[in-house]
Amino acid sequence: MMLALLLVLAAQQPTPSNAPVPVKAPKSDVLVAPRGAIQAPTQPGRKSTASITMLPRVERTPGRGSSSRVLATVESLVEVRGQEENALVGLGLVTGLGGTGDSANMVRGILDNLLRTHNVKVDIQQLSPKNVALVRVEAILPPGIKPGQRIDVRVSTLGDAKSIENGTLALTELTDITGQIVYATAQGPVTVGGFSAQGEGASTQKNSVAVGVLPLGGKVERAVESQLVSENGYIYLDARAAHGSFGNMVRITDAVNALFPGAATPEADGRAVRVRVPSDLPKSEHVAYLAAILKREIEADSVPRVVINERTGVIVMGEGVRLRTGAVTHGALTVTVAETPEVSQPGPLSGGQTKEVPRTDLKVAEENNGLTLINGAVTLQEVVEVLNVLGTSPRDLISILEAMSQAGLLLANVERM
Q1: Strand ranges, E, within 190-304
Q2: Greater model confidence, 357 or 214
Q3: What span, in angstroms and rounded, lies between the C-alpha atoms of 90 and 153?
Q4: Residue 279 and residue 407: Cα distance in Å, rounded?
Q5: C-alpha to C-alpha distance for 196 and 300, rounded to whole angstroms
Q6: According to the model, what pLDDT value does residue 43 have?
């Protein structure tokens, strides 16, 4: 409005007698402001959008498999009691970071203590260690490992460090859960499984750069006592979590007794097998005795199990999963929100204030599906064919499988990762 008023006032001014007669310019769609006028600022015209796109389904052809029986070794089904792995943990510092470390308040005290151990005293307020990050250090100590051997180490940030890429772990002690006994030490360059790049107005990152590993970066300082044969002269074979069935324990017992008659007995809980070691067998032959047992092959039970991961949408089904006849319906709900705030800019010399006015574009789409008949399925191939009739995404299928399990249509154990 102010611009139109200025144009009107300019048109009403008298033209001097000696001034040249203005020539009318051809009509144009572009409005040109006269000299001396104040042009209003250009308003932003870019709008934000939000959408959800469902990609087309990819049908994969099964690879060539084997129709014969699948045999499993005893070693793949059990663990030997007394040969467990031990977890080690510690706190350390990753140095040499290019300004991507923790904030100063996070590591000032820790860095001050580190300097004092080397007889270096600095005013703590003068420390601004953006090149240092506080990390949690973890390692797995295998059974029977001896001092001086190397192990892999994993580190992860505890503070607000952006990246530990290209960093170096300072010498760190790794202890047991009590923190009293040091079993290993770790130090060396950190390797991360991703990368990040950042500029003034954009950044990119692939995988995590706040977690890294040190391949063979740990050194064992103390051995952990392991036991192969108990004081009573028995070796205990404990079933692994995914294979702890009564049928597997019975078959393992029969396989061991076929090799060494009368040596194996299943435990009363059905989750372990006790193997007697002959009293006249020399101690040096105990390892060979156990190795012969672990290499025996049996036809393992097919435990009906469905494993789902809601975070990634992964679904894994094992053999033995079956379906009962029923009806299922599922209506996917899609909510799209787009924020397009507008700036209310007052005219020049009006005394107004610039304000941001929110504008929201909200769309909700809900599928209108009817009931779908689910036929019974007794093989894994039939289960896959029946579930594919629903035509849902993996994340929607996870919800359907959970509901079918509660309704008794899915005859399998549903486990969540």
Answers
A1: 191-192, 195-198, 203-206, 211-220, 234-239, 264-266, 272-276, 297-298
A2: 214
A3: 11
A4: 55
A5: 46
A6: 59
